[in-house]
Amino acid sequence: MRILIGSPIKQKTNILDEFLLSLKDLEKGEIEVKYIFIDDNDLKESSDKLLEFRRSENNVDIFKLNNIDNKYICDNYTHRWSKDIVNKVIDFKNFIIEVAKKENFDYLFFVDSDLVLHPKTLKRLLSLNKDIASTIFWTKWYPNSYEEPQVWLKDNYTLYDSDYGEEITKDEEEKRKRSFIEMLKKPGTYEVGGLGACTLISKVALEKGVNFNRLYNVSYVGEDRHFCIRAAALGIKLYVDTYYPAYHIYREGDLVGIENYKNNNVCVNIKIDSESAFIILKVALEGIGDYSYDKPIEEEYLSFFWRRCKN
Which CDD domains does the UniProt record give (predicted)? Predict the structure, then answer.
C-alpha cells in the first residue's frame, strides 16, 4: 500500500511544528508513505522547518511553485481568502493530484497544515475502503461562536437535510441542524455532501477525474466546494469518519489546547478499544451458544466468528 501525503503550506512556524510532529506520529505499519509539500511560506523559519522534516523522514519532496504573490490574512479573529489566493491553492492541490496519478499511488491524503492528527487517523481512514473520506475536526469560525464541523450536507455549508423543494421553518431548520451535529459527535462513519482539509482519496477517484478546478457555473468560494460537487457528479460518495477527530489550530490561541487534545486521545483510544473488545466477546458468546467446554469447536463456528467480527 503506497500513500502520498500532500499539503500546500503557508504557515506560522509554531503551528507548523505541531502539524509536522503529528505527521511523524501517524501509525503507518507496513504502509509506504511519501510526503509532498508545496512551500509557499513567507517565513524563512517555516521553510527551514520543512527542510528539517525532510532530513528526519524518508521520501519527502518539497516544491516551490511560482504563482501570484498574495497576502493571506490569518489572525486571531478569522481567516480571509481572496479569489487569487484560492486560485493559487487550486493550482497547488491539482499539482499534487497529478503527482499522485503519475507515480501510481494507491491513495492521496490531503492534510491542511494547521491540523494536529490523531496517530490512528491514516489507518482508520484506510480501513473504511471508501473512495473519498475525511476525518472530522471542529472549529470556532469566529471567536465567540459555537464549534462547527468542516463537513456539511449540501450547498455551500448547509448543516441540515431537506428534500428537493421542501420549505421548512427556522425552528425545524435548527432542529435538523442540531440532529446532524449530535450525530457527528458520536463515533461512526457518515455520508455527507461536502468535506475537506483532511481527506483521503483513492486511486479510483483520482482516475475518475476528481480535482479542485473551479466549476464555471458554481459561485461558491473555496476549492473544496468545487471538488465535492465534481466528485458527486462523477458518482463518488463522500464520507466523514468521527472516531479520531483532528485538532484545528485555527488561531495561534488554539495552540494551548493541544496538550488537552492529546490527553483526551488516550481516553478515546481506551473507549474505542473497550467497545471493540465488547463486540468481539459478544459475537464469541453468541456463536458458541450451548457448546460444552469439553467438545471441540467446529470449523463452521470459527468461520462464523471471523465473518461477524469483520462485519
Answer: Glyco_tranf_GTA_type
Dihedral sign computed on CA atoms, order 63, 229, 244, 105: negative
Which residues are bridge partners to 238 per DSSP? Answer: 192
Q: Phi/psi at 117 (nearest 5 deg)?
A: -95, 145
Identify the CA nearest to 218 among candidates 210, 208, 229: 229
Residue 199: CB atoms within 10 A of its CB come to 23
Regarding beta strands 2-9 and 107-111, do their DSSP bridges make them parallel or antiparallel, or are they unpaired? parallel
Collapsed DSSP state (helix, strand, coil) of residue 190:
strand
Entry pTM = 0.84
Closest CA to 120 of 278, 273, 280, 7: 273
Q: Each residue of 1-50: pLDDT tens digit? A: 999 999 999 999 999 999 999 999 999 999 999 999 999 999 999 999 99
Tell me the per-residue pLDDT of 75-120, one tens digit each, with 9 for 90 and over: 454 444 467 788 999 999 999 999 999 999 999 999 999 999 999 9
> Measuring CA to CA, which residue among 146, 66, 144, 78 is closest to residue 114?
78
Question: Where on the phi/psi map is residue 29: left (φ > 0), alpha (ψ -120 to 50), or beta?
Answer: left
Of 302, 157, 149, 297, residue with least CA distance to 220: 157
